[in-house]
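Backbone-to-sequence.
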């Protein structure tokens, strides 16, 4: 399940891994989309959930029972880190999501002034989280930087 604040790049991520298609013009997601992506021997079934405030109450439902939660952050939009931290910590405090692996993507690292992985760990208080596997990568859907390690991580969560 892919969650995170609006305009962080969730749908761009799904588009890029699904079809290699990058676009500046992506329509904000309404509620959610489901997509199947085949990569080698692995088929990913992905919930791409909308990030605007009115849809955030859907996140928990779409994250329960999944093999991994991907939380996408716009690593260039530092003003939104506090809201991202709040929403992430709130989501992960749900009893239904205990133990579900978490992958945090600091997206848009093609933009000058983006936060590093260490800055994201601090801002989102990822070091406070316990009881689940957690990884955090800096990446860009635009340049496709680090998408290979993201795919490796996801393949490792498959069963
Ligand atoms: N520069 C840059 N822009 C990006 C990147 N990824 C996404 N964007 C842009 O960010 C904007 C929002 O992307 P979306 O993929 O629609 O974001 P979203 O998280 O799905 O947003 P919601 O569906 O509203 O929750 C679009 O204009 C994208 O082109 C990136 O890696 N670099
Ligand atoms: Mg979207």
């Amino acid at each position: 399940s892919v969650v995170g604040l609006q305009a962080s790049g969730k749908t761009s991520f799904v588009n890029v891994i699904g079809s290699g298609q990058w676009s500046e013009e992506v329509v904000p997601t309404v509620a959610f989309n489901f997509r199947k992506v085949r990569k080698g021997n692995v088929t990913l079934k992905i919930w791409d959930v909308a990030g605007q405030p009115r849809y955030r109450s859907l996140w928990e439902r779409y994250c329960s029972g999944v093999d991994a939660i991907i939380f996408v952050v716009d690593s260039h939009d530092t003003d939104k880190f506090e809201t991202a931290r709040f929403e992430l910590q709130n989501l992960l405090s749900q009893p239904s999501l205990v133990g579900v692996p978490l992958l945090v993507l600091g997206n848009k690292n093609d933009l000058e002034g983006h936060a590093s992985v260490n800055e994201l760990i601090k801002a989102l208080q990822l070091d406070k989280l316990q009881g689940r596997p957690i990884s955090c990568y800096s990446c860009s859907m635009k340049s496709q930087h680090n998408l290979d390690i993201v795919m490796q991580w996801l393949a490792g969560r498959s069963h």
